[in-house]
């Protein structure tokens, strides 16, 4: 017997996050390109980000046929949030008048790289990166390296850099509730044994 699911946040109705999801406006337009394997992930943070931002869009796929139209948004400069040798720091984009269309691939690093490989137009976009040293609140899995953030955390950091002094911290409320719920479901003892810092 399956549990009734909230059609908006895709969580079980008993753990619906909608009351915690804000409705934040941003000058920056956020385009989230989500790998299909992430859709049913328990911690679908890209969906939380898209629901919490009025100027955001979430598209699921591996190959994006309508990418030219998605990237050609009048009044916006498209930038890919992804590391690379020629990536500019996010702060460099904050100083300009023209707002960004921030393109954010959502998936494991391997799957995100595959999405770039399958979509040459995406791979060709100028890249931007976040400041180093970001610490993830994602306490349920070990980060692959320092500064590895969940999708929603990366978006919050990017927007707070681009649109300072505006705070986008309310986007993290449903994310934190989700993590607290997962910890509660596994029990404190299991969490301490498997996830707490040694």
Automatic annotation (TrEMBL):
The lineage of its organism: Bacteria, Pseudomonadati, Pseudomonadota, Gammaproteobacteria, Pseudomonadales. PANTHER family: TRNA-URIDINE AMINOCARBOXYPROPYLTRANSFERASE 2 (PTHR21392). It is an enzyme of class 2 (transferase). This is tRNA-uridine aminocarboxypropyltransferase. It holds the Pfam family DTW. The keyword Transferase applies. Belongs to the TDD superfamily. DTWD2 family. It comes from the Bacteria. Its EC number is 2.5.1.25. One of its GO terms (molecular function) is tRNA-uridine aminocarboxypropyltransferase activity.
């Amino acid at each position: 017997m399956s549990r009734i699911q909230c059609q908006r946040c895709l969580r079980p109705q008993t753990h619906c996050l909608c009351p915690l999801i804000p409705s934040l406006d941003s000058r920056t337009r956020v385009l989230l390109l989500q790998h299909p394997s992430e859709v049913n992930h328990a911690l679908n943070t890209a969906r939380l980000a898209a629901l919490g931002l009025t100027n955001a869009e979430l598209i699921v796929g591996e190959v994006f046929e309508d990418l030219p139209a998605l990237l050609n948004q009048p009044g916006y400069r498209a930038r890919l949030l992804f590391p690379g040798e020629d990536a500019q720091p996010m702060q460099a984009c904050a100083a300009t008048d023209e707002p960004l269309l921030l393109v954010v691939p959502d998936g494991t690093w391997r799957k995100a790289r595959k999405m770039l490989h399958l979509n040459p137009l995406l791979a060709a976009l100028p890249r931007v990166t976040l400041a180093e040293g970001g610490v993830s609140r994602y306490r349920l899995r070990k980060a692959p390296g320092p500064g590895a953030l969940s999708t929603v955390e990366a978006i919050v950091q990017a927007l707070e850099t681009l649109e300072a002094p505006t705070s986008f911290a309310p986007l993290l409320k449903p994310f934190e509730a989700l993590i607290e719920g997962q910890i509660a479901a596994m029990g404190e003892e299991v969490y301490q044994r498997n996830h707490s810092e040694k």
